[in-house]
Write a structure and sequence with these properties.
By secondary structure, the protein is mainly alpha-helical. It contains 5 helices and 3 strands, in the order ααβββααα. Helix content is about 45%, strand content about 10%.
């Protein structure tokens, strides 16, 4: 386990470990697998981008919604299939951080993705989008925590 990832929620740590062990193009294939597995938005959220947070820093249209249920966050993303790397990253973030507490999300290091080796398979521009997605998730986690208090 990497030192930079020692404060990750267990599900996200498992994903990081999976990527850490993959080599070269296998990392990209894993990312594309996550993209293919991204669930559609639930009916109550589909088509309601105005109630979702848009990640403007991404070149692709990325929308995220965080919902606090019994003290734990559930994450929903809408990313077009035409953007498979960003979609894959959003899907792995949803899988890794759904069920986490706001504090757990807030404690994720901004550069945790480095342990995954994503910088080896995606462009710097995509890396900036990855960082922005986490920043938006953290802001939504903080808002959820504050509104619950």
């Amino acid at each position: 386990m990497s030192e930079t990832t020692n404060s990750l929620p267990a599900k996200l740590q498992e994903i990081v470990d999976e990527f850490e062990w993959a080599e070269g193009r296998d990392k990209l294939e894993l990312l594309l697998d996550y993209a293919a597995q991204m669930p559609p938005l639930p009916e109550w959220l589909a088509g309601q981008h105005d109630s979702m947070e848009q990640v403007h820093e991404c070149m692709s249209p990325v929308f995220v919604h965080g919902e606090l249920v019994d003290g734990r966050l559930q994450w929903y993303f809408d990313v077009p299939p035409e953007s498979p790397t960003v979609r894959g990253y959003a899907a792995l973030m949803a899988a890794g951080l759904s069920g986490a507490t706001p504090d757990e999300v807030l404690s994720v290091p901004a550069d945790f993705w480095q342990a995954m080796g994503l910088q080896e398979v995606v462009t710097y521009q995509r890396i900036r989008g990855i960082a922005a997605i986490l920043a938006h998730m953290k802001r939504l986690a903080l808002e959820a925590e504050q509104s619950a208090a």
